[in-house]
Amino acid sequence: MTPGEKNVLRSLVAVAWVDGQMEDGEAGVIDGLLSGFDASEEEEAEILEYAKTPRTLDADVPAGEMTREDKELLLSNAALLTHVDGSQSDKEKQLLERLATILGFSSDEAVEIIAATQDGILNLGTKPLG
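The structure corresponding to this sequence follows.
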């Protein structure tokens, strides 16, 4: 796992904790990314241990250490996290706006990244199983 991927995962943990708790679906997205990033057992254990403690966007999103690609990956996966329960609340929309600001995206850039993620969410829902 690259340092950038680790920063994305740690930041997603902060996104998941914004409401004061880590939901099962949010943990599932993070777990899926661990697999997708081909994390070693040690890296996986480190991130899962990190996820046990409440985190905040201000303290735990290292935007200055992230590439633009890392930031886009983070924002798109944060948008995915906000849809884990099947809907996106106003509070979750505000969270994405705040995260986009922390990451240095303009409003237009953030809307484009989030819209692309939402298109993917809609497409996943229309694919037949099996």
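Helices lie at 3-16, 24-36, 41-50, 57-60, 68-81, 90-103, 107-126.
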